[in-house]
Design brief:
Length: about 190
């Protein structure tokens, strides 16, 4: 009986840990779990000068979808985006839901040049997805910002902030784009 109880307690602890680390809607990591892994990567980058990249993804026009079709459609869109990100990411990438309609990817041992292709692949996969809501077809899109240490970010602790700057540039220049952050002497430019 004691070993059965111990096994049940261990199983419950594992489930609680999983629930405390994942986003309920998408199944991706939540920001608490992501930040722990990011902290470890920042320490590794500082010590060994290994590159890493953060990709921030923001769903374009989620508010419009919610207002026009309801929050169930918005949730479907969020799950669809999460699924596309999961399908395009490498097994070694760390994926998380950053907030309402934002996602973040941590790519270890990856610089800007090697992050451009998967970022664009994610953008394309999401744009090619078709959601059907109330007999209407919706083609979602996302804006993406990419920042890499040490390519474009000198201080690894600022990588999310710089990815967000690049994301904002994607939004401002028409949405449905990938923009890579570059150091101030070279303004952020769209990834080719």
């Amino acid at each position: 009986v004691t070993s059965m109880l111990a096994a049940d307690i261990l199983k419950a602890k594992k489930k609680i840990t999983l629930l405390s680390q994942t986003d309920e809607l998408t199944g991706l990591l939540n920001m608490r779990a992501f930040n722990l892994l990011l902290g470890k990567e920042i320490a590794r980058a500082r010590r060994y000068q290994v590159p890493f990249t953060a990709i921030m993804i923001d769903v374009d026009d989620l508010k419009t979808i919610n207002d026009r079709y309801g929050h169930a459609a918005g949730n479907l869109l969020i799950r669809t985006v999460a699924s596309a990100i999961r399908g395009c990411a490498r097994k070694s990438d760390v994926l998380a839901r950053y907030g309402g309609d934002e996602f973040v990817i941590l790519m270890t041992h990856t610089g800007t040049k090697d992050a451009r292709v998967p970022a664009e692949r994610i953008r394309t996969a999401i744009h090619d997805a078709v959601l059907t809501v109330r007999d209407k077809h919706i083609n979602p899109s996302v804006s993406i910002g990419v920042a890499s240490f040490p390519d474009s970010v000198v201080n690894p602790e600022e990588i999310l902030e710089k990815a967000d700057v690049a994301l904002y540039q994607s939004k401002q220049s028409g949405r449905n784009k990938v923009t890579c952050y570059e150091r101030p002497q070279d303004p952020a430019a769209a990834c080719a």
